[in-house]
């Protein structure tokens, strides 16, 4: 199976693991000549907070989630690494529940692989708080690479 599109999905907890996510996606995308779909998924509350923090004038501007994602620091950090390694990419933003939005982006974008980050949790922690990565691993339409972060 050829790798043409790789979805790298990031969210609010991925800023401190951006280097690991970038390395994982470059290791796969560069030799394959694949395009990376950089996607930042926001809940509605996160999206509203980012719009305010980045000084978007929502009363005047017609703001698209792709534009908000492109201005987010984590995406900019990942773009710098992809540019440095001559890896093609497109930037996407989505507003919704993290897990289901990532699965939808992978499906709609015909992703051949999804890369997500996460942290190690106890089984009880997963049961109580849920796991975006677990939902993506179980529901994605393609293979998923999980990049483990440290303990929270």
How would you explain this protein's 3D organization?
The chain is of the alpha/beta class and 152 residues long. It is built from seven helices and five strands; from the N terminus they run E-H-E-H-H-H-E-H-E-H-H-E. The protein has helices at residues 18-32, 44-53, 65-71, 73-84, 98-108, 123-129, 132-139; strands at residues 5-10, 35-42, 89-95, 113-119, 144-149. Strand 1 (5-10), helix 1 and strand 2 form a beta-alpha-beta unit. The protein is globular. The mean pLDDT is 87.
SSE pattern: EHEHHHEHEHHE
| Major beta sheet, strand line-up | 3-2-1-4-5
Mean pLDDT: 87
Low-confidence stretches: none
SS-based class: alpha/beta
Taking the sheet with the most strands, its summary is: 5 strands, parallel
Cα-atom Rg, whole angstroms?
15 Å
**Amino-to-carboxy terminus distance:** 36 Å
Number of beta strands: 5
- Helix-residue proportion: 40-55%
Put simply, the count of helices is 7
Task: Tell the overall outline.
Answer: globular
Query: What fraction strand?
Result: 15-25%
Task: Offer a concise description of the structure.
The chain is an alpha/beta fold and 152 residues long.
């Amino acid at each position: 199976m050829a790798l043409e599109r790789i979805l790298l999905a990031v969210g609010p907890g991925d800023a401190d693991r951006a280097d690991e996510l970038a390395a994982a996606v470059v290791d796969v995308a560069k030799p394959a000549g694949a395009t990376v779909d950089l996607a930042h998924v926001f809940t509605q509350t996160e999206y509203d907070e980012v719009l305010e923090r980045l000084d978007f004038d929502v009363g005047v501007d017609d703001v698209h989630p792709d534009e908000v994602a492109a201005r987010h620091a984590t995406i900019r950090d990942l773009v710098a690494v992809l540019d440095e390694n001559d890896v093609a990419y497109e930037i996407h933003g989505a507003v919704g529940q993290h897990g289901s939005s990532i699965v939808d982006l992978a499906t709609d974008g015909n992703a051949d692989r999804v890369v997500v980050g996460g942290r190690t949790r106890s089984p009880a922690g997963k049961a109580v708080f849920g796991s975006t990565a677990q939902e993506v691993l179980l529901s994605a339409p393609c293979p998923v690479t999980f990049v483990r972060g440290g303990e929270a």
